[in-house]
Structure formats: C-alpha cells, structure tokens
Amino acid sequence: MWRRVWTSLLASPFPLGQLLLRIEQGEGNGPAIMTDTALKKDNPPLLERLSRLAVYYELTKPGIAGYVMVTAGVTYFVSAGGRADFLPVILTMVGTALATGGALALNQFVEWELDALMERTRSRPIPSGRMGPMEALLFGNLLALGGITLLYFAVGWLPAALTAFSALVYNLVYTPLKKVSYISTLVGALPGAMPTLIGWSAATGTLSLEAGSIFAVAYLWQLPHVLSLGWLLRKDYARAGFFLIPRSDPEGKRIARHITVFSAGLLLAGVTPTWMGVTGLPYLIGILVLGLLLLLLATATLRGSRLSTTSARRVFLGSLAYHPIFLILLLVDALPL
Q1: Would you say residue 10 has pLDDT above 50?
Q2: What count of other Cβ atoms lies within 10 Å of the Cβ of residue 56?
Q3: Which numeric CATH code is attached to 43-177?
Q4: Are 289 and 272 in contact (CB under 8 A)?
Q5: Residue ranges of the domains in the chain?
Q6: Which has more pLDDT, 239 or 67?
C-alpha cells in the first residue's frame, strides 16, 4: 500500500512530487535542489497545470454532480414556497456538488481495475494512467468531507447527514452489490434520489411526506433509465461482472416488463406532489403528459420476441429528457405569480 502511495506522489506534477522524484533518482543533494533555478525547472508549465486540473475535474463526473446540484437547489426553492434567500440556496448547491464529486471520485478509486475492463470507462483518469489511485482516494475524501462540512455549517446537520449517508450507500453498498445482484439497481437509486431530500431539509430543517413525494419521483425515474442503459451496455457491463440487469434474461423480456412497471409507477408518483399540495395545476398537467409519453415508450419494449436495441434506446433517451423537464415544472410551478 505504502509503495502505491509513494508511486502516486512521485507521479505528481507539482513541486513536492518532482522534488521526491529527483531525490529518488539521486540527482543532486538537498540544498542544491532548492535553488531558484531548480525550482523553476521543477515547476510544470501553466498548460500542464491546467491539464492536471482538468483531470481532477473529470474525476468528479461533472455532468452527474451538476445534475445532483441542480436537483438539490430546485427542491430547496420548492420547499421554501418559491421564496428563498439566495445565499443558502447557493451554499446548498455548492456543498452538494462538492460532496457528490468526492463520492464519485471515491467510486472510481474503488472500481478502477474494473473500469479498465470496459470500453466506456477505460479512458477515465485512473485506468488511463493519468492519475494514481491513491491520489484519487485522497482527493475524493477531501472533496466529500469539504462538501459535507460546508452543508453542516451553512444549512444544518440534517442535509449534511443525508449527504454523508448517500455517499456511504453509494460506495459501500451499491458499488459492491453491482457484482452480486440486480438488486443493486434498486439500491443505487436511493443515493440518486437523495438530492431531493438534501434540498428540502436544507430549506426546512426537517423531512416530511411532502418531501417524500418528490423523492419518490426522483427514485422511480432512475429505474427505467438505468435498466434501458443496462440493456444497451450489457456486453460491456458483463466484462466487469456487473449485474445492473437480471442475469438470466438473454432476450430482455423480463427487463421490458420491469421498465414498463416502473414507468407506470412513475406516472402515478408524478401526480403525488400535487395531491399533497406541494405543486399546482401547471405542474400536474406537465407531469401527466411527460409520464404518459415515457409509459408509451416503455410499453413499446414489450413488443416482439425480445427487447430491441431501438426500443431500449428510446426509453433511455425519453428518461434522459424526463428529469430536467420534471425540475423545470417544479421550478415554474413554485414561482410566486
């Protein structure tokens, strides 16, 4: 382990890593290395530093972290009745984004050897050799702890605790379960929907059935999304031994039924926030149309003797559009008019 830490430090482009590397190679003595000329030589060029920052940024999976951040911010705004102070909303979003980016970085540390086996993930920072595993471990922990700490001091213990719980479930339960059972998909949707509770608790300091109604939509939305993606990438996932879809379903008929059932559940869950008084008529009309369209795409997967790539891709793309439109509907409905 310590050899891996030492190797990661030697690979670092920053002055400490370069200094250790030169000592390791026996170049010069201590005082000579610390001259101005040597320091200038050891400092990487600006473009190299920027490139290194880009690798750190990539490690956080900014697309996913951004989605989580926006979800928490929108839910904060909705739970505050459309009247929220600017600073707490921003701090909630920043803290959530930092903690999520850290959790995603830690996930890549845990899975980097498996990522190297799959085409879609082998170019990530660790398996591609652009970052050492221990460097990613340190960075992920610092980022996650920083985000949780920010949430604790800015908006309270409950959103901080929910964020920590989400990161732990994602890395310690969902990640190892992917190699064991299809149940991992149901478990993984829990941290995926947690931003709704983080945003709600940041605004109100509590959780409620109203918060649960939005959480249910965010949870159920992920299931047709992940199942359709799992079918499209089933060969790649099989290389790493991941079971994001049922392992005994070569024709995909069981997956098609699950996609349809979960999409029907999403349609029903979508109207719950209005029934509980969280949202109004504009949201209700929009979410019904959205849910019906996704359900139509889902039922199309039941046709034929096997689940086709085309129908699975349509469900995936439809679910990809569902979530941002869902957030827009929540936001517009909450605006005070």
Answers
A1: no
A2: 16
A3: 1.10.357
A4: no
A5: 43-177, 208-337
A6: 67
